[in-house]
Amino acid sequence: MSSGSYYVPETSRWPILGSLALGVMMVGTGIKLVYDTGTPLMLVGVVGIVLVMGLWFRDVIHESMGGLYDAQMDRSFRWGMGWFIFSEVMFFAAFFGALFYVRTFAIPWLGGEGAKGVSALLWPEFIAQWPLFNPPDSAVTGPEQMFSPWQLPLVNTLILVTSSITLTVAHEAFKLGERVTCRNWLAGTVLLGCCFIVIQGVEYYEAYNHYGITLEAGIFGATFFILTGFHGVHVIIGTLILACILVRVWKGHFDNEHHFGFEASCWYWHFVDVVWIGLFIFVYVL
Amino acid sequence: MAPKLPPQHSLQQSSTAVAGGQSHHEHHAQPKGIMRWLLTTNHKEIGSLYLIFSLVMFFIGGIFALVVRAELFQPGLQLVEPEFFNQMTTMHGLIMVFAAVMPAFTGLANWMIPLQIGAPDMALPRLNNFSFWLLPVAFILLLSTLLMPGGGPNFGWTFYAPLSTTYAPPSTTFFILALHIAGISSILGAINIIATILNMRAPGMRMMDMPLFVWTWLITAFLLIAVMPVLAGVITMMLMDINFGTSFFDAAGGGDPVLFQHLFWFFGHPEVYIMILPAFGIVSAIIPTFARKRLFGYASMVYATAAIALLSFLVWAHHMFVVGLPLTAELFFMYSTMLIAVPTGVKVFNWVTTLFRGSISFEPPMLFALAFVVLFTIGGFSGLMLAIAPADFQYHDTYFVVAHFHYVLVPGAIFAIMAGVYYWLPKWTGHYPHERLAQCHFWCSVVGVNLTFFPMHFAGLAGMPRRIPDYALQFADFNMLSSIGAFFFGVSQLIFVLVVVLCVKGGKKAPAKAWEGAEDLEWSVPSPAPLHTFETPPVFHRTHPSE
Ligand code: HEM
Ligand SMILES: [Cu+2]
Predict the structure, then answer these.
(1) Domain total for chain B?
(2) What pLDDT sits at residue B98?
(3) How many CA within 13 A on the CB side of residue B277?
(4) Is A140's Cβ below 8 Å from some Cβ in B?
(5) CB atoms within 10 A of CB B131
(6) Euclidean distance between CA atoms B118 and B115, whole angstroms
């Protein structure tokens, strides 16, 4: 189990500063949302969080490169990252669950199926369908049309799947000691991540301007944006992480034994990729 | 036949390891005073912070409850506006669940898990500090909503949409953000605990050698990581419905308020087990110690805990029997809920069997643990009554439900926490808690709890609805009793504070093995436990082969 030299860090000021920064950001966000002011406070919080994360990771990198971490420490990081990704899986599961529930139960029931019969009283005209172009109440305007999955979404799927492959190639190259090859494939992965984000941006633009898919467009818009939106945020974060890893590979931070930072970001990226495949199937195709 | 005293787990380690002060702990000057607490990475100090935080919140949440009970002392509206009454019931629930019970268990985990598995600290000590300091931030923000225009959350701790979206006060956005911070804290804390248990055990300690408190926390941490993100998801949807015009929980746009309840209870039911599994672990440590017998059925305890945790994902809709579920769903959730009583019964059976023919002594931790077994079981039985879907049509949203969950949470979770505190105080402070005062605290608490919550069963069965500031005259006697009991219980908790403070200050000196029958690893380090323990990993020797 233990090699007898588990590194217990000194006191550190990053955790408490991090929680304060998070608090400031949340208060700022709240004021922004409720009273339509408070953006500066929110930004102070965001900058604080970014700074703290940077400094905290800097400490970790120094300790790691100073040889303070043993194999047991490495396992702690692995368990930590693994369970963190599991928590992310459950976060997305909530949104997928909402989508399934709405499609298989709520909307058919609104359409009069089963023993519910509420809609027959409230909205007798309502016809169950998906995508929901006709929300039950006329106060809510539904989307006009849905994207074809075989255009931009398919391109994005190919991009993300390719990026998972290029990342694996980069990692394999790293393990073989081919630093230059690793760098190139890693750079390619980051580039693919950026392409995905741009295309997703284009799609959102289209959604709002030509398709009538908006946050306000009933349950379809809501589930569409919450799923693709949180996924998009994860791609942005993942791309940033991979960019940092690229820099660190460049600087020679990792060696064959010690590169869990690299591996962890690979795990994260593959996870983001798998979520997209779920999205592609359940949001776009079916 | 006198039961044989179990031999103690033995340890080999160099003497310097226990005494602390390895070289790498000295090369920076340790910050002094308040900074030491703000910046600490030590599991014992962070554990103490959690416990102190939880105690403070326990009293704040308690005051809210007393406002509720004061208003309900008599029928009619006397003391507070109905709007404020609603804020009090809501805040009481939120604070007790998220700021009192959960942090108390995390504090105990921080203190005891490394000691019980022979680890130098938690696996990720800085993250540990972060998890703690998120809590004050979250709950100062949450409490501040009470002062905001329109008042604080007033929709109950279950915050059902659309009461918490369309019809909610403006402060709801802040409530959501505060809950997000608390959720991050729980998830990170749980990740840390899992990593510690899986990776930091002393060489030679297998999973099936771990004390049950460690096992139950391992499973609790799994539950936390599985369901806190779902809570984060559902409150995010609320945030969107409130601020960005989505219609997740609004049928007008094709959404469904019932969707909210499904998501909430998918989190909420495992959450109640999050609040009870560590309690099972504490009781499973205390009963063998004071019965001077080994725990009966160790392995079955582990499997029962795991079974409870897994089943807890399949029963959530027993909170929703009256929302209009399809018949098949009513049946499924009714039977699956009853199924949970089986592993729970295994546990109660094992505790009782451990007591059977033990040589029992009644120190304060044992008093609380025994009360736990009896009173928790009462809560389990009323749970079974509620699990019968057709009966629940009658009981739902009455005081019967309030009686049920207070029996499992107050003499359940809270008594177990107090039992644990009395049990481990000698290890923390080096002194025994004052015996007479602790007994006084115990008896006052038992009387107070039952006086408060037992009449609620009758009021509920007679039809008194929950969360309403006024009630029909026929419920007056029950409510008066409950209110008297509540104030009595609340005041007697001051004795607890007194005992803890006295114990920190002084008292009868405790040896390393503070209780005669105690056998887990924590009793092998000195009392009080030095700041750093097990810096060189101890070698664990199994004294009960092949459990
Ligand atoms: C044998 C075990 C149990 C069974 C069969 C059971 C069953 C139930 C049922 C059916 C309800 C819903 C009642 C209603 O709203 O109409 C309920 C509510 C509740 N139970 Fe249990 N329960 C059990 C154990 C527990 C435990 C161990 C805890 C916590 C430690 C707990 C905490 C709660 C809470 C907090 C509520 C009420 C939530 C609310 O509406 O505010 N229960 N229980
Ligand atoms: Cu439940």
Answers:
(1) 1
(2) 98
(3) 32
(4) yes
(5) 28
(6) 5
Looking at residue A1, its pLDDT comes to 42
Tokens for B355, please give them.
């007591």
Q: Are B225 and B187 in contact (CB under 8 A)?
A: yes
Q: Identify which of A53, A77, A57, A76 has the alpha carbon closest to the alpha carbon of residue A65.
A: A57
Contact between B58 and B100 under an 8 Å Cβ cutoff? The reply is: yes
- How many whole angstroms separate alpha carbon B396 and alpha carbon B117? 43
Element (H, E) at B12: strand B10-12
Shortest Cα–Cα distance, A52 to chain B (Å): 12
How many C-alpha atoms does B516 have within 13 Å on its Cβ side?
Answer: 12
Sorted by where each starts, the structural domains of chain A and their CATH numbers stand as 1-69 (1.10.287.70), 77-285 (1.20.120.80)
Residue A119 confidence (pLDDT) above 80: no
Q: What is the dihedral of CA A177, A178, A179, A184, to 10 degrees?
A: -150
Is A239's pLDDT higher than 50?
yes
Closest by CA position to A170, among listed A92, A244, A263? A263
| Residue among A91, A274, A74 at smallest CA distance from B225 | A91
Give pLDDT < 70 ranges for chain B.
1-29, 543-547
In B, which residues are within 8 Å of A26 by CB distance?
Answer: 141, 177-178, 180-181
Range of the domain at B202: 34-524
Q: Tell me, what's the ipTM?
A: 0.96
Nearest-5° Cα angle at B428, B425 to B432: 40
Nearest CB to B133; choose among A16, A29, A118: A16
Residue B521 near residue B202, CB atoms below 8 Å? yes
Cross-chain CB nearest to A215 (options B25, B234, B246)? B246
Helices (H) and strands (E) in chain A, counts: 9, 0
Residues B414, B53: Cα–Cα separation, whole Å? 15
Contact (CB, 8 A) for A193 and A163: yes
User: Residue B105 belongs to a domain with what CATH number?
Assistant: 1.20.210.10
| Token pair 């416990």 in the structure block, residue | B51
Classify B256 as helix, strand or coil.
coil
Given CB atoms, is A90 within the 8 Å cutoff of chain B? yes
Domain assignment of residue B540, yes or no: no
